[in-house]
Amino acid sequence: MRKAVKPWLEGRGHAVTFASPNLHELRALCSLLQLGEVGEAPTTSQDVPHLVQHVLGITAPLLQHIHALMVTMGRFGFMILRRAPVGRENDPLLPVPSRGEVEGEPVALYFSAVTTERVVSVSGAGDCLTAGFVASMMRGEKVGRCGAAGLAAASLSLDAMPAVPETLNPGVLDADHHVFSLVRL
Fold this sequence. Notes:
Layout: H1 2-9, E1 18-19, H2 23-32, H3 48-59, E2 68-72, E3 78-84, E4 105-111, H4 125-138, H5 143-158, E5 181-184
Helix pairs in contact: 1-2, 4-5
């Protein structure tokens, strides 16, 4: 958890534009910044909408400074938290606007995890999810395509013993747009 909050502990939190904490790391960050309690990880898929809404509410002040947060939730998928005007929630995350030019309201884009026939190992799936998402983000893709690339990379990891499977390649970035649920405050 200490790594997740290190920039803020060292007075450099203002320089962070994108972070990808899991729920435990987000809990530590929100506690340090006194934003409120994140809550527990969902136990059923019915718990997810409430958790997404709650996390969006407590992280809204942070979205004044961080361009986007990718919060991973294991088997329940992930959410992208950002500020966006109505109708532009799926816009690419890059380029990052200048400080003070953040427009729109806080929104969450929730991506459910893809179902896989078998899980060989969960080791590395979260890292592959983030790597696929960020690689697609760096190409200037819309958030839905970034989500699809991340989920495709995570699926490859789940189906292999190595944390980063040999089957992971740039072709993953060509994954089709993934449907997400939009949540507003």
